[in-house]
Amino acid sequence: MDVAIATWQPEGIRRVEAMNLPHVPGVRYVVSWQLPGPDPVIPESLAHRDDVYVCFTDKPGLGANRVNACASCDAEIILIADDDLIYPPDRLQAVIDSFDRNPDVDLATFQYRGASKSYPVTECSLSFPFPKGYHAASIEIAFRHKVLDQINFDSRFGIGAPLFQSGEDSKFLHDVIRAGFHCRFFPITICTHDHPTTGDKPMPKGVALAEGKLIRLQYPASWILRVPLKAWRNKKKGGTFFPTLYYLFRGALIRI
Fold first, then answer.
1. Which end of the chain is more exposed for a tag (fewer CB within 10 A), N or C?
2. Helix axes 242-253 and 205-218, enclosed angle (nearest 10)
3. Which of 115, 121, 92, 113 lies closest to 186, judged by CA?
4. 124-153 mean pLDDT
């Protein structure tokens, strides 16, 4: 399995170093270092490891960073990761075991410790509509390498992208499901993430644009009703209602 870690800016590689990535047989860490600055230096603690590979990109946006990471992955299974996670060795093995026990599964989602959202109670297949209240974060997604033959992350989405500044994970999962791959949720905790995610915070303009586009893609028959609900939930998180509603609708109507 390759763990595809996205990091960015000169200090990003230090965050990866602080992860203290465990040595696990059969696991390699592919680090995509985005916008590393002039003369980037890989810390010795990473450079001397034979299970860590660092690649670089100057293309903006988290979606583009994940595309770059996946391009350097060659293992049968790819696990998507960020640069601020804690991985117990047995949890990485649990991801591999889940695919070994389910050879028909092309993409699997898991769960992480520190999440403020709800998960399905039991293992289940994923299709639209998702189980009530569920959405998958990028750090919960793993998939077989063959998925990349048809689908990859959309570089127009993700933090730092010019327009849609979130949602690269949801867009990827949407595209994989629509392409007919077998996707399944497993109620297995694979890592710890102790910081708020984008979905835990009120939506700024770029996030609202992305959310509006994704709602329309995922729910083509009911998106016009779901957009106001999304704006209302944003207000409950401390955000605005009407400005967010405007950008949600605007995002939904943008052609891609």
1. C
2. 50
3. 121
4. 94
